[in-house]
Amino acid sequence: MSGSDAAREFDKSHRIRTSVGRRQLLAAVSGLAGLAGCSALSDDDGSDGGSDDGHGPVVADAGEEAETQTVDTVAVGETRGRVASGGASIGRVQMAVQLAQGSEQVDLSAMTIQYVAHDASVTLAHQSTSTDGEPAFGTRAVSAEDEHDAVLESASDEYEIVVPLGDAAGEYPALRRLEPGTAAQLTLAPDTDAQRVVRVEVPSSLGDVEAGETVAL
Q1: How far, rounded to the nearest angstrom, does the alpha carbon of residue 147 sit from its chain's CA centroid?
Q2: What percent of the chain has a predicted confidence (pLDDT) above 90?
Q3: Is the same domain home to 32 and 105?
Q4: What pLDDT digit, counting tens, does each position of 5-59 carry?
Q5: Are 28 and 36 spatial neighbours (Cβ–Cβ below 8 Å)?
Q6: pLDDT of residue 176
Q7: Are strands 136-143 and 120-126 parallel, antiparallel or unpaired?
Q8: Within this chain, do residues 146 and 175 fall inside the same structural domain, yes or no?
Q9: Are 90 and 82 in contact (CB under 8 A)?
Q10: Per-residue pLDDT tens for 103-143?
């Protein structure tokens, strides 16, 4: 082979190696770009919800919510209002209560009731523990093993809670009589760990109800 032929063969071989090298480099760059695009898509669409570095989305622990929830110890049945003398307003709220399922005994005389109405509120104690002049609620045994106390001891026990209304002196505005269409909220607190909220609303008309009769609230 002459010198010129050898030179041409060398040049051809060099061009082939250069072309192959360029193709391999382009393929490598394209592959890296594809991986980067996949990573960006994964971050944008949120398909990867977890993160070990502590920067991923925070999910509330169901146990934390359960710890903040209160458990009812008192089950509230029918709630009624007794029409006051003269009619056209409710002078007493009456609600039936029993033990909630799974609850132990509840001493209603140790319970308090926060009563909210007429843009005011007042805390009521049981009539056996309140002092003279303080607003209070009463209890009446409907069916109980011992009707001389105010303790729910079994599932068959039932008491009626009575909240008298009609603060003539105006010292406790929340306890004014409930007119037709008005509402009130009662929060029963048998102890510090449980509360039961009850909302009552008077019918829009009491025209056909006589004084001393009751209506559903």
Answers
A1: 35
A2: 50
A3: no
A4: 544 544 544 444 444 444 443 444 344 444 344 333 334 444 343 344 443 333 3
A5: no
A6: 96
A7: parallel
A8: yes
A9: yes
A10: 888 999 999 999 999 999 999 999 999 887 789 999 999 99
Rounded to an integer, what distance in angstroms lies between the CA atom of residue 99 and that of residue 73?
6
Same domain as 30, residue 76: no
* 86 lies in some domain: yes
C-alpha span between 77 and 213 (Å, rounded) = 19
Q: Are strands 90-99 and 183-191 parallel, antiparallel or unpaired?
A: unpaired
With 0-12 CB in 10 A as exposed, 13-18 as middle and 19+ as buried, what is 175?
buried
More confident residue, 169 or 195: 195
- Strands of 153-213 (E only): list them: 158-164, 183-191, 194-201
Q: What is the pLDDT of residues 59-109, one digit of tens each?
A: 333 333 323 334 468 999 999 999 998 889 999 999 999 999 888 889 999
Which residue range(s) make up the domain with 41?
A: 3-59
Q: Report the Cα 124 to chain-centroid distance in Å.
A: 24
Model pTM? 0.66
Which residues are bridge partners to 117 per DSSP? 120
Structure tokens at 129: 């523990």
Is there a contact between 175 and 91 (Cβ–Cβ < 8 Å)? Answer: no
Q: Are residues 172 and 79 located together in one domain of the fold? A: yes
- Residues paired with residue 86 on neighbouring β-strands, in sequence order: none
